[in-house]
Specification:
Layout lengths: L4 H10 L7 E4 L2 H11 L3 E5 L12 E4 L2 H11 L3 E2 L2 E2 L3 E5 L5 E10 L4 E7 L6 H7 L4 E5 L8 H11 L3 H20 L2 E11 L5 E3 L3 E4 L8 H4 L9 H8 L3 E4 L4 E5 L2 H13 L6 E4 L6 H12 L6 E8 L4 H14 L6 E7 L2 H10 L8 H15 L1
Parallel strand pairs: 14-16, 16-17
Antiparallel strand pairs: 1-6, 2-3, 2-6, 4-5, 7-8, 7-10, 8-9, 10-11, 10-12, 13-15
Bound molecules: guanosine-5'-diphosphate and manganese (II) ion.
């Protein structure tokens, strides 16, 4: 799950990372009031779930409250990479002498969190990685041992040679790691980590992504979810317990189990088709779930046929068939539908489908071939 910069700032601040004070507003007059309260130069920053806001014109310095209001009014409502800015942060601006990068991601290859620091901060780190990878220092962290003080000092030393500045940076490096572990993040980064001309260290930007599978342990973070940053389909799928990922093809798939869903996508490709989505309806399949799945899939204008591929283990095929019939009675799909149900109570399911004059396929191959063919004919 992505969270906003201001929320990441709150988390980091809670771990003791030095963060300039700030407030979040959705009205330009409020931005002016916050700037008055802060009483010095401020920075007005778009709060949207994308990076590169600075380049897109979503981060602006203001010398006066009046200027802060003008910037807020320009940034609010702005479109940044397809997202509309609904709120801005007004933060105490710091003078920048140097901009560094410090971040942690989970690295699948080493199966560890990897700490990355670079003296080339303030710019897109992917760009640094692509053009001057030697400027990024990587340090895998053993999750059992954690990050030692010596590790933190070594990383800080890569950023700044001045001992007292490096000492302050080492503290931030340690606290960022604590925040990363403590909030079950998959990514936590500060870019830029700023050193001022008078050698103070401040985290001026913060980004944290949370591992969805750990959210149940963090109701406070779950509450940070911004519904406006999630598409309607994604929200409905999540609320109904469906795993849905939209793809570019035209064969809509409704499948139970992630493994079978992946296999189904492979078999669609094998028969020359393109899956329109990955959709795992999970263990049980109430009519509501089926209805939501069908709604989400038919909401995608690319979809030309729908393939329902269910293996009944704990899930009973007759339940699925009843759910499907109920869903279709509620709202007919208007697209060719191929159903393949196998496993527990498959015979009963077949009878239910036949009663409602719905065609079913015996095997996965047969079902997929049919669905691909039907999509092609519609195209
Ligand atoms: P991003 O573009 O989405 O990564 O947003 P950032 O928060 O990183 O801001 C982009 C750039 O704006 C930073 O790299 C800084 O150069 C500049 N900036 C942000 N906050 C401040 C600040 O408090 N003072 C100064 N002088 N510049 C800032
Ligand atoms: Mn940044």
């Amino acid at each position: 799950m992505k969270i906003h910069e201001y929320q990441a700032r709150e988390i980091l601040s809670g771990y003791g990372v030095p963060i300039p004070r700030f407030e979040v507003v959705d009205d330009s007059r409020d931005a002016r009031r916050v700037a008055e309260k802060i009483g010095s130069m401020v920075v007005v920053k778009a709060q949207v779930h994308v990076g590169g806001r600075g380049k897109a014109g979503g981060v602006k310095l203001a010398q006066t409250p009046r200027e802060a209001e003008a910037h807020a009014s320009a940034i609010l409502g702005m479109d940044i990479k397809g997202l509309t800015v609904e709120r801005v942060m007004v933060a105490d601006a710091v003078d920048i002498d140097r901009e560094y990068y410090a971040g942690i991601v989970v690295d699948r290859a080493t199966k560890r969190p990897v700490y990355m620091v670079s003296a080339a901060g303030g710019v897109d780190i992917e760009e640094v990685a692509a053009t001057t990878p030697e400027r990024i220092h990587k340090h895998p962290v053993d999750p059992e041992d954690g990050l030692s003080e010596a590790d933190a000092q070594e990383l800080a030393g890569k950023l700044d040679a001045r001992p007292h500045v490096a000492r302050d940076i080492a503290v931030v490096v340690e606290k960022l790691y604590e925040a990363f572990i403590g909030s079950d993040a998959s990514l936590a980064e500060i870019n830029p980590l700023v050193v001022t001309p008078d050698e103070q260290v401040w985290a001026v930007d913060a980004k944290i992504n949370i591992d969805d599978n750990a959210l149940f342990r963090h109701p406070d973070i779950e509450a940070m979810r911004d519904p406006s940053s999630e598409t309607d389909e994604l929200r409905r799928a999540r609320e109904m317990g469906l795993s849905y990922i939209k793809l570019e093809g035209d064969v809509g798939c409704i499948v139970n189990g992630a493994g079978l869903a992946m296999t189904t996508m492979d078999v669609i490709k094998y028969y020359g088709g393109e899956p329109a989505n990955f959709l795992d309806i999970g263990g049980s399949s109430s009519p509501e779930k089926m209805q939501t799945a069908i709604d989400i899939i038919t909401g995608d204008p690319n979809v030309k046929s729908i393939l329902l591929n269910i293996f009944g283990g704990i899930t009973r095929c007759d339940d699925v068939a009843r759910g499907l019939v109920a869903a279709l009675e509620e709202q007919p799909v208007g697209l060719p539908l191929v159903v393949r149900l196998t496993g527990t109570n498959a015979e009963e399911a077949g009878r239910i489908l036949a009663e409602h004059e719905m065609e079913s396929a015996e095997t996965m191959d047969e079902a997929v071939e049919k669905a691909v063919e039907l999509a092609r004919r519609q195209a």
